[in-house]
Specification:
The chain has about 55 residues and is mainly beta. The chain contains one helix and three strands.
Length: about 55
């Protein structure tokens, strides 16, 4: 659901780097204009990302 021109989502991304697979919680914020995304920002915890790659 969205209100106005801002949409927020939470998701779990699965990253595969070489032989290592890790799941990373991500929050994304989108700005929409005329039905098209004009800005897209993702936020995640770098500490959690690097710990999953060990």
């Amino acid at each position: 659901m969205a209100s106005g021109d801002t949409v927020m989502n939470e998701r779990i991304d699965t990253l595969v780097i070489g032989d290592v697979t890790t799941k990373l919680p991500v929050a994304g914020i989108f700005k929409v204009l005329d039905g098209k995304i004009i800005e897209w920002r993702d936020y995640f915890d770098m500490g959690q990302f690097t710990a999953g790659m060990a």
